[in-house]
Every structure is written in C-alpha cells, then in structure tokens.
Predict the 3D structure of the following.
Amino acid sequence: MMITLTKRGYTGETDLEPIAALINACEAVDCLDEGSSIAELRQEIEAPDVDRDRNLCLWETPEGTLIGFAQLWIPESGEVRDGFLWFRVHPMFRGGTVEGEIVGWGETRMQEVSRECGVPVSLRSGTRETDGDRIRFLESCGFTINRYFFRMERLAAEPIPTPHLPPEFTLQIGEQQKNGDAWVELYNQSFIDHWNFHPLTRDRLDYELANLPYRPAFDLVAVSPDGQFAGFCYCTIYAEKNRKTGRNEGWITVLGTRRGFRNQGIGRALLLAGMQQLQSAGVETILLSVDAQSPTGALKLYESVGFRKSFAKIALSKALDNPKLAN
C-alpha cells in the first residue's frame, strides 16, 4: 500500500496509548502472545538504557493514525556495536513501504553510532520461525540468519527431582537486593561465553528491581565453600500478563554458572530449586527461553528435566558499512 507517511520521534506519555493500541492490533492478528499495555510500555521505555530521543520512532498516516513503531536497543560495549531492532506495523499496512522505512531508519541510526564511536556496527532483528513473510522481508534487506532460540515449557505439576548442590555449597536467596554488585558480576561472568553477550549494568538491575516483579525467594544463588558466588537462578511470575492471558505461568528467567564452577551439577541443582519455588507458588506451567546452540549445553539440561520446545525464534543480522572506517 503506497501512502505518504510522517516519521517522527517519541514525544512522551501521550504516545504510549497509541503505541499500545498498535501492538495489540498486531497481536490480535499474529497471536504471538506479545500484547502490551500502557504500564508495560512505560516500564520498558523509561529504562535507563533506552535513548528515548534517538532510538524510538513512529510512522503515521496523513490523518495522524499510528501504523508503525520501532525501537532500537544499542548496548554500549563491544568491538562491533549492535543495534537490536524491534518493530510493529499495523496489519492493514503491511507489505508496502512502512517496513522498508523502518529498516532504513535503523540503518541510518546505526551508521550515526558508527561515526560517533568509531567502531563497526550491525543491525539485528528477530522473529518467529513460522513468520515466513517477516523472514523473507529481512533477508531481502540483506539480513542473514545467525541463531535459533527455543521457547520451552513444562507442566509444574510433574514431579521435580530433589536438587543437590556439591558438598559444602550453600543456597542463598535475595542476593540481587542484598548484594547487587556481586550479583551483576556473577551474571556477567556466567554469560560471558554466550553468543552475542552484552554485559548487565548495575543501573539496569536497580531499575528492574524497582519496576518489575521480584520475589527474594525466586532469586537463588549457589555459594562455594570459600564464599564465591558460583551460579544463579532467577524466576519470575508476571501476574499482570497472566491476568490478561488467563494462564497461570512462571518463568525461569535466567540460569547461569560461573566459569570455573561448571560441570559440577550446580546449574542443574539451581534449576530444580527454581522449579520447586515456582511449583510452590502455584503456577501451572513453567517457561524458559534457550539458545539452541548454547555452548554450556543448556538445551540438553532443560530437556533432561522435562522441558519441551513449544516454538523457535530466529535471530538475524546485517553488517553495516561505514566508509570512514574503511579509509
């Protein structure tokens, strides 16, 4: 559909309602379980690592109807600076010029980052494995598939084996609140070997603790006999989302084991302990996401305790040229 569009930046609170309406109009057609609300959008957009002036963009019809929204998340680290592009286009306006304008905006913004930082950049995006139209569109723009991520689930009512940490290791709870710096270091050292890793910051942790669901009992850390944080499991129940969907689900949000402590059964023990906490909280289904090619063997671990794949997401990327760097 060829129309004249107006592109503009995010202007604040008044944009939240039309953005939420656009996302939910897409959800009504796509059924991806990715609807949103004004409150959820506010939490995400107000996060400390979101550049609201430069990394959010809206597309409107001449009548002022919002039909496209895009957000870039650009971690401030790495030899190559990545821009993660998330976008939605109203179902009535797909397949025209809107998607191309969104990708063009993302490329232009990342080239600005390259000039400012003097490093190569890439644009990344993702979608469900079953969304052939989105995959073909991204590939037509020069994106290539790099990775598959699986959503997995398990019924909480199924028996959960008893967790066993190595001798003299202890399980502590609530360390994100009690010892945030050490928890952030543990997180980063646990995921440093993972594909496309970007460090967690203390500012981000503090923001999530203040704005997202948190229960100390779901915040588990394995501590070695000499007092080191060796591994962690963090679980979440999104009560508002469960109310909207009518489901009763809990998440293994993150699970990791620090270098030097792997292959001792710590990750398995923490996973089982987290599952027990969610089971005790009364959830019906336990969910998680995993890199299908995780170098730590996470997929096999999850399968071994009863998790099964429900769907896959694909990560795609496109390297962007900066002529100044080439010279």
In short: The radius of gyration is 21 Å. Residues 149 and 292 are 5 Å apart (CA to CA). The mean pLDDT is 93. The chain has two domains: 6-148+315-326, 159-305.
